[in-house]
Design goal:
This protein has ten helices and six strands. It is of the alpha/beta class and about 290 residues long. It folds into two domains: about 70 residues; about 170 residues, Ribonuclease H-like superfamily/Ribonuclease H (Nucleotidyltransferase, domain 5). Strands 1, 2, 3, 4, 5 and 6 form a six-stranded mixed sheet that branches. Strand 2 and strand 3 form a beta hairpin. It is elongated, with a radius of gyration of 23 Å.
């Protein structure tokens, strides 16, 4: 027993042992977080905890979410949010109602949300068109080009239709009122495939919040807000970012499941042998390791 503090030698060494175990535990967690961040540079704490929880359980390490966040904070691993903006669409003259506002979306391929964002290169801007499934948050189609013309939106739409194989009659295609979506050629293609146009108000980002959110995730979490040397380099980064977003990133609104898992699970309920992949549809080669080293 220590005469000064009244603590036995045994209790002192037990406390030391616990502290050393906590330090080792924190070091292991930080190492695993850094490994994940090499592929998902801006992944937040809740998603990291969800991914690492099974590993911690196997290692007989019980770390709750509060303690997990403390470890991240102590080791400067918390993420600071970033913001950026650049205009990519200009309103067209054609108008239609917002069908998404009152719609009940209870499965994939009931509604898709389209949007356009920009990427910087040393030679100027290029433009990324995205189509996202409203129910699963799965990106069903995309296109990157140096032009804001309608052809980019048409290519993304064609890719989505080809990958899904079956597009239900009456699928809602929601977007802003950008000229790419309001032009006659694009509307004709939607009608050909039995889709219904839906649009929010001009300048109201909340009317297309889901698409805006997906754009933000790709740019702020996967480095697409940086500057690329060439369009080819930007295109490779886009393919990698979309793969990681679709297949590996847990989504808060999906109970921390990935968009791909939710999309495929619901499709198989309707058609047991059904699978869909935008990468298979376009023949893209996507690496499974070392994407964001």
């Amino acid at each position: 027993m220590c005469a000064w503090c009244g603590v036995s030698r045994q209790a002192h060494y037990q406390q030391l042992k616990r502290e050393q175990a906590h330090e080792r535990e924190a070091q292991v967690i930080c190492n695993e977080v850094r490994k994940i961040r090499r592929r998902h540079p801006q992944m937040g704490g809740r998603k990291l905890h969800k991914i690492l929880k099974p590993q911690m359980k196997l290692a007989d390490t019980e770390v709750g979410r509060d303690r997990f966040f403390e470890i991240l904070k102590e080791n400067d691993l918390l993420i600071e949010p970033k913001r950026s903006y650049h205009r990519t669409t200009y309103p067209g003259t054609w108008r239609c109602e917002n069908l998404l506002a009152d719609a009940i979306i209870n499965g994939p391929n009931r509604a898709w949300a389209g949007d356009i964002t920009y990427l910087r290169t040393d030679k100027g801007f290029c433009y990324l068109v995205l189509l996202t499934d409203v129910y699963s948050r799965y990106i069903v189609g995309f296109d990157l080009s140096t032009s804001l013309s309608v052809e980019g939106a048409e290519r993304a739409l064609h890719q989505a239709i080809k990958a899904q194989k079956e597009v239900p009659e009456g699928l809602i295609h929601h977007s802003d009122r950008g000229v790419q979506y309001t032009c006659r050629d694009y509307r004709r293609k939607l009608k050909k495939h039995g889709m219904r146009s839906s649009m929010g108000q001009t300048g109201n980002c909340y009317d297309n919040a889901l698409a805006e959110r997906v754009n933000g995730i790709l740019k702020l979490e996967y480095g697409l807000d940086g500057q690329f040397a060439t369009v080819a380099q930007a295109r490779e980064a886009v393919v990698q970012a979309i793969w990681l977003y679709n297949h590996e990133r847990p989504h808060n609104s999906l109970d921390l499941q990935t968009p791909y898992d939710v999309h495929q699970h619901q499709l198989r309920k309707r058609r047991p042998q059904s699978t869909s992949s935008i990468f298979r549809a376009q023949g893209a080669k996507v690496l499974s390791v070392g994407l964001a080293a």
